Request: fold
Amino acid sequence: MGLTRPTVGIVGGTGRMGSWLADLFEGYGLRVLCAGRKTELTPSAMVRKSDVVVISVPIAHTVKIIRELGPVVREDGLLMDLTSIKKEPMEAMLKYSRAEVVGAHPLFGPEEGHVAGQRMAICPGRGERGLKWLTGILEQVGIKVVVMDPEEHDRMMGLIQGVSHFSTLALGICISQSGFSYDDVSNCSTQNFRRRLDRMRAIVEQPSELFESILMDNPGAGEFIEQYQDAVERMREITCEGDTGALRGLFRSLKAFFTVNQKGKVISS
Reply:
């Protein structure tokens, strides 16, 4: 596989995350081809010209695109995806291609100004040369690589992304139905709560499709959302019953989990 100076082709390279990756590789001095819905270069033509092929399309379309293009990727090439769910795309890349395979998920948004210090989840699939090439570039630009298997990744994202977006949207519903206007709430908010309001606005200003797969297509999300609902119900009972003993016990158990070490980092006890 020619990975000294490979040509990288990105399906969905005109999208937000695809464009970010294109800029990263171009900044590294690589030739990058992009194919999207509005480009003259078709995905299949782009794949035939590429040593590395990246699938960066909405999750709902990822497996379909892999099924169509996987057989076209050269056997000595690298096929990778850039989605927030890894199990199904990884299975599809391994099934429909003979190339080396790596799953990738940037744990940050494309709007981030600097990548140094950011993290990217990497799921090894098939072969070692492509994996070594990709992780080498990421580490050189300062991105911390977090190696995971696809199932572990999806369960973790079910918690981190699924519950996070679920709880943020639920709070947004609560605020919108409170009888207070947005300005009233904002004017009376603490700095921390204003950040949460800003996060809600940022979410609802984006297409809902971006969150549908995170909430609905990842089985891990449903699992942890149920746990979250149980926790909310427990908190409701403690609060409504005025059970200070239970609340203090809850704080003690959480403190035992979120133990701060001497360097100020939160670690699991």
